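Model it.
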Amino acid sequence: MVLGRRGYETAVQGTNGFVCIVDRGWTDGFDKPDFWNPKKYGPQCLNRQAARTVLPIIFMRTKFALAGQSKEEIHENMKAAVEKNELPAVEPGGMSYMLSKQGHLTASYGPWLPHLMFYVPLKDAKTWGAGEPGSPILVNTHYNGDPEPVTEFLVPVSDWSDGTPASADHH
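Modeled.
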């Protein structure tokens, strides 16, 4: 999908259930300084389960951002959508990946690390071992209950989509 004036539009119809988009800053955590940074973008592909349950969050936030709402208004409207059950519950097995060197997840870093993202219902990250010393699992504040009832775990991987190794000292 590509971002158009009215939101994301299908550029090429796939056949395997995955949906690939480029995330923008307004889909990040509301406390992130790059929320409105036009240079922040993250190419990602969501599997069928994530496309059905996480993509509606991205589409809704995008609709509000393109309508000119403030960060605070988007947060309040997302909170209201959650309270009204206007978003689907997270499906088991929802995941996506960001393996492209072309992404810029913050204005200062450029590509971060190639990684997989797993979506689960809002949980305490510690129950999954996320963020613990020696754990390969990181918690992203992308969602994690602010206000969407989704926890997103990140698992860095060793190679980019082109097969080149990711630098161990990458951001």
